[in-house]
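Practice problem: predict the structure.
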Amino acid sequence: MGIAIIALFFAAVIFILFGNRPGSEVFGSRVPARVETPLEILEKRYARGEIDRDEFEARRRDLA
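Answer:
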């Protein structure tokens, strides 16, 4: 009985430490990672130089 309680305690500690982070998976439960918005994706593409300013502005207007 005592070993079962100790095992449950350690399982709870592991779940608390590692189970609540986005994208983490402990005991089969998955916390979804944050999903980027279309505007955030567009801003990153512009920052990386994949699209120019005119295309960025046009697409930003389309999203608004």
